[in-house]
Each structure stands twice: as structure tokens, then as C-alpha cells.
Amino acid sequence: MTRTYIGDYPSTPFPVTDIPASCVHEVFRNVEQWERETDTRAIRLHVGEPAFRPSSAVAGAVAAAVRDGRDSYTTAEGVLELREAVVEKLTSENGHDTDVELVVATPGSAQGLLAVMNALHRPGAHLLLPAVHWPVHLQQCLLAGFVPRFYPMDEQMRPDVAAIAAMDVDSSAVLLVNTPSNPAGALCDTARLGELVALARERNWAVISDEAYEDFAFDGEHVSTAALESDVPPSDRVVFSAFSFSKSYAMTGYRLGYVVAPNSRHAQTLRTVQEASIVCPALPVQMAGIAALEEREQSRRNGAFVRRTRDSALLPLLDAGLLERLPGGGWYALLDCGRTGLDATTFAARLLREHGVALAPASGFALRVAPDSAIEPDPGAEHLLRLAFCGPPELVAEGARRTAAFAGAR
Ligand SMILES: Cc1ncc(COP(=O)(O)O)c(C=O)c1O
Fold this sequence. Notes:
Elements: H1 23-38, E1 43-44, H2 56-67, H3 80-94, E2 103-106, H4 108-120, E3 126-130, H5 135-143, E4 147-151, H6 161-165, E5 174-178, H7 190-203, E6 206-210, E7 239-244, E8 257-260, H8 264-277, H9 283-293, H10 296-313, H11 315-319, E9 332-336, H12 344-355, E10 357-358, E11 360-361, E12 367-369, E13 375-377, E14 384-388, H13 393-408
Parallel strand pairs: 1-10, 3-4, 3-5, 5-6, 6-7
Antiparallel strand pairs: 2-8, 7-8, 9-14, 11-14, 12-13
Helix pairs in contact: 2-9, 3-9, 4-5, 4-8, 10-13
The structure holds pyridoxal-5'-phosphate (PLP).
Pyridoxal-5'-phosphate is lined by residues 48, 108-110, 134, 178, 182, 210, 212, 244, 246, 252, 257.
């Protein structure tokens, strides 16, 4: 009798040791070094740390949980109270038809995304990633053992549906959609998401919808991909969703998010992945999540705050030809410094050195796999830079003004 052992499967193409570190961390280290050497504080627009903080109710919920002894293990998927609050929000605001059994609380949506990929991975399966992507999506793809494929985007950095349809992948493929997106701030509307879901269903692909920036949709409403499947029987649904408390409530250091499985079969696999990886999210943090969901208006205020910064502070970048249009959502803008004659790395290094403004060169957001399996930036991304506009508005405005002036002087 032939038996299949794990070792008989085709091995993953990338050993963990070859997975590239995120370029953002490298920029972070360079900026800190410059700050130490010059004893100056940079205008830090290279990372997305928001100006607003979690409300006192959120912090109080953690303190109360610790004080009251709510500090034990919980079930892998998190306490029912939190999942009930999540379902209430998913139903009333995201248009989902879901259930507490399908929700799994995770330590940040990053861990949630990895859990979904672990749950969906099949030997040799492809993960379809945006050509310009958050580097962590690629790291997770490789960690979970998927073979990455990068799909083209239109001129506004939204998924190009026709090009995705033309990709040669089988039914084990998984399509990742990120709206509003990091790093381009692209927002997908109902029509585009509907076409993507229809394509995935036709091809029998699963979809991972990363909605970490759901409360930061500016040029239109945020559409939650799974809402487009609410009239499909759960057993036939294909969309997994990942949400975060980090952006909407500025709870970046709490590490809390949640994923939603399309049906109970997949939810069970996700619970197993959680049992085996994190056991459960920290209970005091889960209590903070409940407190945050009681203050949904806070997330709307945070969205409006970032929108105001976008509407005013980024205008000099449009005038300088660094930005073609304001980002439709999220809290990052993707600049193109091609007209200055400098590549993004040189532009960022000089901008920091000469004007004290830190941006992230974005070639690490457009990685490709070379024929020899080396991971390299797409040469087409040589002039792209990412600017975060969620920080203090006066600093974002000053940083954007200096960036535009530096580009204009070239
Ligand atoms: C697109 C995207 N998804 C997910 C995350 C993860 O957020 P967290 O793990 O803090 O919930 C981030 C964080 O930067 C992100 O940019």
C-alpha cells in the first residue's frame, strides 16, 4: 500500500531562511540611526503610527480585566462576548450574514491572515497577491508554503480583473484582495469586488479579504467582500475576511484582530490552527476589543481625522507631480519620484539627510520571484515611495511640504 507522508509533498519553494525581511523595518533602523547621529527628530512619515490613541474605555477594560482576574486561557477562537459584539458589527455595518461560530479572534489581523493561509494551504497551491503589496502578505504566503503569483493592477492600483482571469492557476489557488490597500490607498467598489468574487467562485478559488483599513474609505464607501456572498448558502461560500483593531481604534500595540470564515467547516480548521499556534488571544486584550466595539463612533471619528489630513496636507504632493490623485482610502500615499531623476532610495536618503523627512522607498512593496527563485524588487517600482498620513496633521503637512519642495528643486 502506498502511503503519503508529509515529506512526499513537493517541498515549499522558499525555505524560511530565504524569506525577505520587511523593507519597512530596514527603513525604521536607518531613520533611528540618523536621529541618533544628528540628535534630531525626523518627521516620521515612513511608518503608519496614528496620531490618535485608544480611548480610555479601552485601556480601562484591560486594567479591569487584569485586576478582576480575567486573565486565564480562553477557547482558541476567543470569548463568546467578543464574538457576539463582532457579529453585531459585521451584520449592521459590513453587511455580512454570519454567526459567532464563524468568527475567530486573533492577536492582530496579521496573525489572523497567517492563520487563514495556514488553513487554506495545499501542496503546490498558488497565492495570488497584488503586484504592489504589503510585504507581510508575501512573507505570510511563503511561510504558509504557498507559491506566490503577482496579479496586475490598473492605473489606480486596483486589481485588474481581466488580467487575473487570464492567470494560469488551478482550483487550489487563493486570491488575496486588500481594500482599502496598503501601500497605494486603493479602494475597490462593489462592481469590481463582485467581479472578483464571481471569478473566484467560477474557478473554485478561495478569497482572502484584508480589510484592516475598513474605517478609512474616503472616495466612496468601504465594501466588505464577504457581503457580496450573503445570498449564497454558507457551504458554497469562498470568502475569508480579516479585520483589525489596530487602525480603527489605534490599538496597534494591543495586538487584536479577527477573521471570519465562510462556513463552519473552515471555521473548525481555523480554530485548529489557533490551538496549534497561539492557543488563544490574551483575555484582557479581548476585553479591550469588546470596549472598543461599544464605541464604534470613535472609529468613524478616526476615519474623519485621517481624511481631513489627506484633503489638506497632501495637496503640495499633487502640485509637485509626486502624486497623481489623492488616495481613495487607507492612510498611505504612494508617491512616484521618477520626474526628479532620482531613484526612490536616493530620494528618501537625501530627503532625510537634507530635510529631516523620513519616507519609505517602496521597491520592497513590489517584490517578484526571479527564475532562480531569488526575490527581487520589480524594476518598475524603482521610483515609488510610501508616505503615511495618519500622524499628527501639522507634521504630515510639513513633511509633505518639504518633500514637494525638495522634488520641485530638482
Ligand atoms: C494591509 C494590512 N493588513 C493587515 C495589517 C496588520 O494589522 P494588525 O496585525 O496590527 O491587525 C496591516 C498593518 O500594517 C496592514 O497594513
